[in-house]
Amino acid sequence: xxxxxxxxxxxxxxxxxxxxxxxxxxxxKHARRVWCAFVFDSDILEPLPRQDRRxxxxxxxxxxxxxxxxxxxxxxxVPHPERVGLIVRYGSARSVIPQLAGxxxxxxxxxxHDDEPDAQDRDAQVRGRLSNLGVALxxxxxxxxxxxxxxxxxxxxxxxxxxxxxNAWLKKLEPFYVKPYPIMPYAAHLAPxxxxxxxxxxxxxxxxxxxxxxxxxxxxxxxGMSGAQALLDDFLHRIDRYDSTRDFPGLKGxxxxxxxxxxxxxxxxxxxxxxWQRAQAGSAGAQVWLSELIWRDFYRQILFHHPHVVxxxxxxxxxxxxxxxxxxxxxxxxxxxxxRTGYPLVDAAMRQLNQTGYxxxxxxxxxxxxxxxxxxxxxxxxxxxxxxxxxxxxxxxNNGGWQWAASTGxxxxxxxxxxxxxxxxxxxxxxxKFIRRYxxxxxxxxxxxxxxxxxxxxxxxxxxxxxxLGRDYPQPIVQHDEARTETLARYGVVSENKIKDGAAPxxxxxxxxx
Length: 514
Prior knowledge:
Elements: E1 5-12, H1 22-30, E2 31-41, H2 42-45, H3 53-75, E3 86-91, H4 93-104, E4 108-112, H5 117-132, E5 136-140, H6 162-172, H7 224-236, H8 242-245, H9 258-263, H10 268-280, H11 284-305, H12 327-338, H13 344-356, H14 361-374, H15 379-389, H16 395-406, H17 421-428, H18 433-438, H19 458-463, H20 480-491
Parallel strand pairs: 1-2, 1-4, 2-3, 4-5
């Protein structure tokens, strides 16, 4: 990077904060005048439904980021601090960023790495167009602790199994890698935005309507840096119990920070530093949570080294599987999407997703397993549905999780290990607290009856507000034991191993830091 840039532009993307920010730090350190911009990228936004919680989260987070930049300028005495802030535009980033760089007359543009295949293509085009203007594009690591080729096997190849990757990751970790990037010492280089570039009135951040979207109502996750900090403060009181509470959706176990990690309203370095220090002090909960943060890095390096996982099985032989299709499969998929499968825990989880944009991680595994191995439906259909609905949607983690459930991915559960949705319900929601919250039509049933109501005595159904299966709540759309047999046959096309029922070896269950 040049040490004598006259001016630079920081292109914010999935890093919506103004503290401990790698690209912002490098720009401020190497340039005398620095402007900041965010593009509502039409290439990404146009295919989305007009009501999208993620777009609302981003928009509200931008308001706080803009104010944060202005406060930085004010605190260090930048002239006209009221004109310092975020330049926000709508359009294809492939053309908007070069155009904005030309308007500002900058010599360089700084951004965070993004290893998603479409983002790589976008950045290559932007780099080429900027080069034609004599402007350099610098991208730097910010979303992860270790990326790309930083953690490799002894043969200099990428890891495909999590545990040895985690061990190598932990061995490499040292304080340098979690040290925050200091912004304040260089904040005086923030520059007022020329009026010709952005009028910057009091309400210059576009509304949802300005970019063609509709209001979505109150978000379940408070946006912005302040929203992330509030969740972190709350979680730090519970982190030591994370290992024993994280799997129970009726308990307040997760950190709920996954959306903030996705959009970079909190620094991954800060979170890993906190978890690492706490784990070293003996906290089992912090140790497990740190492991979940490492899964994020693991899946990102998988995506970087194996971009074919977008749309294809990581283990290519599993693309030979013949998935259920036709009218019956479509009806089953629709019932799964809408929470009408007749399996209360599955239905509660899907309704949570549809109503809030969030799903508890244990339930992501349960619902994915049910779609793939009870209904026999292609994992890519479920992956796409989660991609549309999840507020914390992240391509690498979502793809990795679905391929884990489908047994098509790296370090995946064996194809013959199939979650039983009833026993999962009995184990992780024994009192039915979660089920009652999202399947209220069954709320009056006794605890034991909630997990498989079709097996409940008629007297219990009658005493529970006269619940009638098939009218008030659906009968199960498949029988798990029968579906399991069909799944074993379906997966048999990629393996000749004869595995006895229940003889699965121990496997690890990946979770995102949620």
